[in-house]
From TrEMBL:
Keywords: Kelch repeat, Repeat, Signal. It comes from the Eukaryota. InterPro entries: Kelch-typ_b-propeller (IPR015915). The keyword Cell membrane does not apply. Residues 1-19 form the signal peptide. This is Kelch repeat-containing protein.
Amino acid sequence: MHQRFSVFFAIFLPLLAIAQRVRCLAAAETAQTGDGVVKDAHAWGFSGGMLSVPRSSMAATSVGHLALFAGGRLHNGSYSDVVDIYNRTANAWSTAHLSIGRSSIGAGSLAGRYALFAGGLDDSFKPMTRVDVFDSETGEWSTLELGTPRGSPRIVDLGPAAAIVGGLSGDLQYLSKAIDYVSADLQIANATLDVDYPQLGLAIADAASGVGLFAAGYENDRPGDRFNDFQQSNQTTVFSIATQPGAEPAVGASRGQPFPYPRWGAAGAAANGVFAVGGGHLFGDASSQAQTTVVDRVDIFSSRTGHWSSSPLKLSTPRDYPLVQAVGDFIVFLGGTDQSKDFDILDTRSGAFVAGLGHRPALYTLRTDAAAATVDNCLLIVAGGLVYQGRNATASVEMFDACK
């Protein structure tokens, strides 16, 4: 059954012109980067750098020619307010500060101009409402407030609007159904996710097509009870921007086809209307089955058909909580808790993984709980995380340059 609801931004500036402008820009960027990405992954360049402060559990996103790595956990366990910003045009790093230091922050972009750092947990593990907003055109910071405090919210960038979805609520329900829609003029409208159970899933967006997913992860089958019941989730919500002549664009969210192989710890990205969700783990009974089984499965969702593929792909190695980024026509899987430095690179044009990579490209530093962002759809940056079997936070940065 498909139930659809739409949230119309009556308090917003008219968005039709904005939507059309963003779609034109996105189409232009897609055409440019389609020819502006080195197709031979063996030839991708490599360089290194350092964050200003070693940390893990950062929030990362990109906007304009900038990659931003915000907040996170310091080596002593406290939470940071530092934002490290890499400018690809200037090939230089700078720093800024969030209004409040925190971890478990949701990160995403909006309208090709704004970077959003939403919610999070403070040092007492209390969920927060704060949203720090960076304007890449002016270099200025401002703040917004979520309607419901929560940690680890997910952000779906739909072009002329963004949806800040779910997260950790800190109450008996523990997982939140809240949505905050943010318009390109930085106004917020509140809604509720239409799902059977509160869910902490993964968010993937393809701003060029104006489609996003909130899917997989885990759900609380006993919301409001004293004791929570967390199970892997098959719930899928599809977000989209609807435009009609003479009307304001509307952000819609509808129940999508169930996620075909529910599991925890998966991650994904989208390119060319192809949404790829890979890795993760399953829980067993620890007697007849292993307590935790890490998987190599990759599930594909098409924005054109609105369905998940019946033929899953496989990673070269099982990965749990991998980093996944879109680079041109490619979707890159790396890292995670699998102890592998190698990349898996899916070519969305052929629907197959690039063969014969060997160990290039690959991570130089084995790390977990790191952050990743892709600048200009061609420069993949991996930063921070935990090294030496998870004992120490690192400041090291690795940049994989696929830009022509």
